[in-house]
């Protein structure tokens, strides 16, 4: 994604002029909705032994602080149209405390095979052009070749390693430490039961429903959730997707985290999906269902590749 020499310029692009480019970015609208989605009656998905990696807390936690997932935030980038856009992302546990999960179309340039989106950064807890927990420039993208080559949304997830954070400082930028130290990281779970598993969904929906109603602004972290089912979505080449009841609209919500066993007290859980699209199952012109890839052993293998990569700092010292 970005070399060390380019990372400082990318951070300045987003944080300069009081975060003007962050504030000007619009929610990404690539594959935000899917048509002709059906729920699979058998609910069976291939998989082997279930596995998981626990969440990791931040290095320090304010006593008595009300906990929403501090790991949630927005990923910003230049889209295939060259304009600034954003999706939802979440920090996940990793060896070097430097990894972000999101939807694949929020990291890959879907107009060019083998290319990542330009000027990619993660801002946990984003609000009003500010980066309260720092801004983290993407270093390396890890995804599945079936998405990169074939746009197969059964593999529509991405893990991105990021440099240590930066914040605005007098005369430029200052280092602000590792992502996982500052906000923690969600755990990861794979090969979990595909049917009737309860998940909490966290994201920043912003777009309209098909009837034009716009219930979300994209300015605040929203939550929904329910019990999972297995879905087919031919428009996404999706044969092994998960579905969950959710009123989220697609724009802005792409990349929303699906957390198993979410603990409100700690803000931690186990990432078991990311929103790749939404749909209107009952055809009432209101989105009612979010879709995610099923996290299996291949998902874990992609994550493991990201987990092995150290990033380092943007600035010397």
Structure explained in plain terms:
The protein is mainly β and 317 residues long. The chain has four helices and 19 strands. The longest helix has 21 residues, at 4-24. The two termini are 22 Å apart. The mean pLDDT is 93.
Describe, in short, the structure shown.
The protein has 317 residues and is mainly β. The protein has four helices and 19 strands.
Keywords:
317 residues, mainly beta, Thrombin, subunit H, 10-stranded mixed sheet, 6-stranded antiparallel barrel, 4 helices
Question: H/E element string?
Answer: HEEEEEEEEHEEEHEEEEEEEEH
Q: Provide the CATH topology.
A: Thrombin, subunit H
Please, how many domains? Answer: 1
**What is the overall silhouette?**
globular
Structural class per helix/strand content?
A: mainly beta
Strand content is 35-45%
Mean pLDDT reading: 93
* Largest sheet: number of strands, sense, barrel closure: 10 strands, mixed
Distance between the first and last residues' Cα: 22 Å
In total, the number of strands is: 19
Helices, by number, come to: 4
Helix content percent band: 10-25%
Topology:
Elements: H1 4-24, E1 26-27, E2 38-39, E3 51-53, E4 72-78, E5 84-92, E6 99-103, E7 118-124, E8 136-143, H2 145-150, E9 157-162, E10 165-169, E11 172-177, H3 179-183, E12 187-190, E13 198-203, E14 222-233, E15 238-245, E16 257-263, E17 268-274, E18 277-279, E19 289-293, H4 297-307
